[in-house]
Amino acid sequence: MKLSSLSSSSFFSYIIALFFIISLCVFCGKDLVLDIVPLQYDQMNFKNDNPVLPFIINHTTKGCDIFAGKWVYDDTTMPHYEEKECPYIQPQLTCQKQGRLDTAYQHWRWQPHDCSLPRLNASLMMEMIRGKRMLYVGDSLNRGQYTSMICLLHRLIPENAKSLKTIGSLTVFRALEYNATIEFYWAPFLVESNSDNAIVHRVKDRFVRIDSIERHAKHWKGADIIVFNTYVWWMTGRPMNTIRQPFTEDLKDVKMMKTEEVYRLTMKVMLNWVKKNMDPLKTRVFFTSMSPAHESSKEWGGDLDGNCYNQTEPINNPNYWGKFSNKMMMQVVKEEFQRSAIPITLINITQLSEYRKDAHTSIYKKQWNPLTLEQIANPTSYADCIHWCLPGLQDTWNELLYTKLFFS
Ligand SMILES: *[C@@H]1O[C@H](CO)[C@@H](O)[C@H](O)[C@H]1NC(C)=O
Ligand SMILES: *[C@@H]1O[C@H](CO)[C@@H](O)[C@H](O)[C@H]1NC(C)=O
Ligand SMILES: *[C@@H]1O[C@H](CO)[C@@H](O)[C@H](O)[C@H]1NC(C)=O
Ligand SMILES: *[C@@H]1O[C@H](CO)[C@@H](O)[C@H](O)[C@H]1NC(C)=O
Ligand SMILES: *[C@@H]1O[C@H](CO)[C@@H](O)[C@H](O)[C@H]1NC(C)=O
């Protein structure tokens, strides 16, 4: 079967185009690698009173559902850093620099109903990951969260003791004095696919090789903390093309399968890899749930033809849930995680991010292709309602991760 014979839809093409535009430039900024003299620091001793979950230092939020809560406007403690203070933010996410005038989206703090989140303490975090490798694996949304994490931490590290380097699918932030790395690995489906090139992944018809993860996963071995995500690339609105054979250029045996079914198989393959490769006594594994999109303002009772463009406030309705977030897919994750009994912590950001129609990059991102006159006349038509400005919502995702890692 030839790929070009597979059908496509305009929504699908739109998403593909969007991703291509977004991913043309991964960390376009200058290379930040410098000569570094490693320093020796005394290891700090933290009491670890939960032998089952490594890294926990205090059960401050144990038993509290930190994902259930509300957004509180707080311009004294938020944001954690200024956009221009963090040189690592890709120009697709530097909203202020790209002309966004309002800043309220940076000042919302997540307040769980039953407890408070510990404030992210960069020096504590760096001490805890001393000598360790922390790795985010997934798509551009996970890359945004990864970038947020290095923005939250980098201030602590002197200019000549840190570096950022991208080679192929792997981006590595290195903190020399701590002998620690925080890394991102591009694998939008986790398993192998025809979208795996970190720069050029514009593909008209997507397929995954459902049984093959090793070509990616060999780069994940030895990680002490892994944060996975995978969702948006699955949402083409049609069945997924699946191949059950290792990588060859030859596309025989392409099979169409229901998206949830292939997603479930992918979860199984990922969990099986975790079981074989991650020691539960020494390492931690996280999975970030689906990131919502705000493509249609009718969904929250706004204009009939609007989207996230020109949205400056969160949604108030506590039950709001947009169409882009497929509950069946979330159910698949829940079921497979329960069934596997592997210690993997879900960072359940979906509901709290549903409220944040104001937090997307919208039109305030670097445009890789010149806009047409039609687009300029109608900004809604090219607003990105999938990705998020930094600083912003994804800093909260990391505070939740931080809380689960050390305080749950
Ligand atoms: C845990 O955190 C709480 C609240 O921050 C604090 O009162 C308590 O002393 C801490 N316990 C330990 C063992 O550090
Ligand atoms: C942050 O953590 C360090 C330990 O690395 C501690 O000494 C310091 O007091 C903490 N800061 C705050 C504000 O809690
Ligand atoms: C740095 O960390 C690695 C593990 O990530 C360890 O093998 C190595 O010995 C450490 N080096 C130093 C100088 O502490
Ligand atoms: C943006 O929203 C405000 C109200 O919130 C409205 O007055 C204004 O006309 C909108 N601008 C555009 C370009 O849609
Ligand atoms: C994530 O959190 C929301 C809101 O608290 C909840 O409805 C949903 O079931 C949770 N998802 C999973 C997989 O636990």
From TrEMBL:
Membrane-spanning segments: 12-34
Keyword Zinc belongs to the record: no
Keywords tagged on the record: Golgi apparatus, Membrane, Signal-anchor, Transmembrane, Transmembrane helix
Sequence similarity: Belongs to the PC-esterase family. TBL subfamily.
Cellular component terms per the entry's GO annotation: Golgi apparatus; Golgi membrane
Membrane topology according to the record: Single-pass type II membrane protein
Matches recorded under InterPro entries: TBL, TBL_C, TBL_N
Name under which the protein is recorded: Protein trichome birefringence-like 33
Keyword NAD: no
Lineage, highest ranks first: Eukaryota, Viridiplantae, Streptophyta, Embryophyta, Tracheophyta
